[in-house]
Design brief:
6 strands, 4-stranded mixed β-sheet, alpha+beta, two-stranded antiparallel ribbon
Length: 283
């Protein structure tokens, strides 16, 4: 399921921002893009996201922008000591050289360093922002899920109407086969052998009997409706039910006793495929 949410908050040293992007995927795939200053918060963020999202590709970006007036630079004593030693050696080698100026010292790499962020404080703020963004993201996904559930329910209703059409078509096909077989025997033999006709009709009826498939299809549709009514994370279960529906629809098509039954089976398979496309987007 798709969605986007963002949240930001001021920090003593700048601003923290969280962005969440969700797209469709059969499995849960969490990708974190975290600023180096906030890397310590990664395990807690991953645990929080996995607890709220069950399916989909989720990208989380946690960034930190230092404030213009919130400089936390400090002198690095070790770097200054190394620079002082180097300056003393250089002065011995070049007695006439001018000594280092203060500006030169401050520009020397490593002399000025940023003090690290308070991991506990920044981690707490990052989790707070992530929870807020997750609330918005989940609300968006629920609204999308309600629309997808309505679409799947409409396909289920169409499938039930098709099953109701198929049931009376089988006896009609058997009767038509009986009449056709009788006519062919009369043309070939001059008369119809009732015993042979009954035997052929019995074989044809056994091959074209789809009561079991219709019963299983109806049972699977019942389970789809129950799953939609329960709500929650239902995508994987609905995906499995769509596979079972497609299996029974294939058997129904293979047993088609006539063009009308075959047409119904084809329409049924099309509806199941449309349902599967929607189910792939449901958490």
């Amino acid at each position: 399921m798709t969605g986007y949410a963002a949240a930001a908050a001021d920090h003593a040293r700048g601003k923290l921002a969280v962005e969440l992007r969700s797209v469709n995927s059969r499995y849960l795939d969490i990708q974190l893009r975290i600023a180096d200053e906030l890397r310590a918060a990664e395990p807690a963020l991953r645990e929080l996201l996995a607890a709220r999202i069950a399916r989909g590709k989720l990208e989380c970006r946690l960034s930190f922008a230092p404030g213009a007036g919130a400089s936390s630079q400090q002198l690095n004593p070790d770097a200054m000591a190394r620079l002082k030693g180097l300056a003393a050696e250089a002065a011995k080698a070049f007695p006439g050289a001018a000594p280092l100026r203060l500006a030169d010292v401050l520009r020397w790499p490593g002399v000025l360093a940023e003090s690290p962020l308070d991991e506990q404080e920044s981690g707490r703020l990052a989790l707070q922002l992530c929870r807020s963004a997750l609330d918005d993201l989940c609300a968006t996904r629920r609204r999308e899920g309600a629309k997808l559930a309505a679409s799947v329910a409409a396909r289920v209703a169409d499938m039930r109407r098709l099953l109701a059409r198929v049931a009376p078509l089988v006896p009609e096909a058997v009767a038509a086969y009986r009449a056709k077989l009788t006519e062919r025997l009369r043309e070939a033999l001059g008369s119809a052998d009732d015993e042979r006709v009954r035997s052929e009709i019995a074989v044809f009826g056994a091959k074209s009997d789809v009561d079991e498939e219709l019963t299983r299809l109806a049972a699977h549709l019942d389970e789809v409706e129950r799953t939609l009514e329960r709500g929650g994370a239902a995508g994987k279960r609905l995906d499995f039910l769509a596979q079972e529906l497609n299996r029974e629809a294939n058997t129904l098509a293979s047993k088609a006793a006539g063009a009308k039954v075959a047409d119904c089976a084809l329409e049924l398979k099309l509806l199941i495929e449309q349902m599967r496309e929607q189910v792939q987007n449901i958490e």
